[in-house]
Design brief:
Belongs to the P(II) protein family. Keywords: Nucleotide-binding, Phosphoprotein, Transcription, Transcription regulation. It is elongated, with a radius of gyration of 17 Å. By secondary structure, it is of the alpha+beta class. Helix 1 packs antiparallel against helix 2. The chain contains two helices and six strands.
């Protein structure tokens, strides 16, 4: 099992969720986040005053999936989150030692 963590632009969430659903991903955790990468934020003018927006809005998606779904999941995320512009995001893949469904006490991939 792997934890796939993707940081994407917020307006791409519905498209990415639908693509992941199509390949068989049954659940995910979504968190609103703020951050920056290479773009380092930007400067705006509001009512004549200039100010810097250091942290840009992002959405974090976390899914724990079986090893055989990792490749298709990454492909779906990249294909549907990509705009071709700076700030499209990142995808991280981490190993998951075990999983436990609290309600039924199922372990491993059965808990997914």
């Amino acid at each position: 099992m792997k934890l796939v963590k993707a940081i994407i632009k917020p307006f791409k969430l519905v498209e990415v969720r639908e693509a992941l659903n199509e390949i068989g991903v049954q659940g995910m955790t979504v968190t609103e986040a703020k951050g920056f990468g290479r773009q380092k934020g930007h400067t705006e003018i509001y009512r004549g005053s200039e100010y810097t927006i250091d942290f840009l809005p992002k959405t974090t998606i976390e899914i724990v999936i079986a090893d055989d779904l990792v490749g298709p999941a990454i492909d779906a995320i990249v294909r549907h989150a990509k705009t071709g512009k700076i700030g499209d995001g990142k995808v991280f893949v981490l190993p998951v030692e075990t999983a436990l469904r609290i309600r039924t006490e199922e372990h491993g991939e059965n808990a997914l």
